[in-house]
Amino acid sequence: MKIGIIFGTRPEAIKMAPLYKKLIENNIDTKIISTGQHKEMLDQVLNVFEIIPDYNLNIMKKGQSLCELTSRLLNELDKILKKERFDLILVHGDTSTTMTASLAGFYNKIPIGHVEAGLRTKDIYDPYPEELNRRITSNIANYHFAPTELAKQNLIKENIPEKNIIITGNTVIDSIKWIKENKSENIKMIQNNLNLKKQKYILMTMHRRENWGTPIENVMKAVKKYTSEKNIKVIFPIHLNPIVRENVKKIIKNDTNIILTEPLEYLEFISLMDGCHYIMTDSGGIQEEAQYLKKTILILRKTTERPEAIKNGTAILVGTEEDKVYNAMKELEKNMYKNIIKDKNPFGDGFASEKIVDFILKSK
Ligand code: UD1
Ligand code: UDP
After folding, report:
1. Do 161 and 201 belong together in one domain?
2. Which pLDDT value is given to residue 163?
């Protein structure tokens, strides 16, 4: 059996790395095709997991549009799929790489396994274009590896046959567990070097397309106001997307309590998450990791496809209006420890990759 794992962005690589390692451990012939939808941000992940892709399609162009990205991805992936003749392709989540890899697989009549299947907000423009990407992928995929029961139910409602849906937990929990277990010394070193234990700080990220412009600017205004009143720092590693950087830097100039950095290596980012007071983000993966690290999250979005974290008492859907964000920060200052953090992580137990590989081996 020959498997092709296709990914292209930072979060896909983080979430597919443990699955790749598990497939190799089980002597399954597996190749990685990186589309290179991301470049520097992808390298930062591959280094930590010591993964060298078999192919790198080097797709990324600065400021790429969705249409040009999609057409380049389809054309380049088709060439590899014709050459390699995989028995199964594994894709992850909801990016342009995910959707086009599924489509290219379908055109080449190769079965698709979709990891992190079944997440839904039901609003096609939120997150944009991810909600449509994952719906298209669900329509094409043969096997659906759902992280939670809710994700499975979403798929059943869309008439996906139940026998093809396997609840596995999210592979990101495998990743963060691996990092915490194997790199704890590095984490301590990073925290010591940055003097993190001695200061209280909030960690922040924001990059989603539907938040470009006014929403990011509003959130930055709230953060600026709050940190200028309180003696607390916000650390914000900014995504390399030029639009995001422009939006942030329009509001944040010389604010001493707001530390803007380049995107961090995965290990560094985990070290910062591990030591922070709480997290503000519109990222998907960070919400799941935060649950493992028992950190509270302010979700800077209108909708969420991960209501499990809200139900568990660790995440608050705050939106992007300036007043709401500012008030939520103030509220958290008082009520932080009232948040219930249950021991059972709704996003998984760290054995998602094992469950996926078991399924693949059984259905060989
Ligand atoms: C993509 C995904 C999104 C995911 C996010 C994770 C799509 C449509 N979007 O959004 O679902 O949440 O990745 O981060 O698939 N850039 C660099 N270097 C990098 C990475 C990006 O310079 O290593 C810059 C480039 O100018 C690039 C731009 O960011 O054109 C946008 O990258 P793109 O992958 O199109 O979109 P993201 O916003 O990163
Ligand atoms: N991350 C990282 N460095 C950073 C910011 C985030 O390694 O500077 C990691 C983070 O731990 C998480 C993933 O990147 O696993 C999330 O990626 P992103 O927010 O770009 O995408 P999303 O999850 O929203 O699709």
Report:
1. no
2. 96
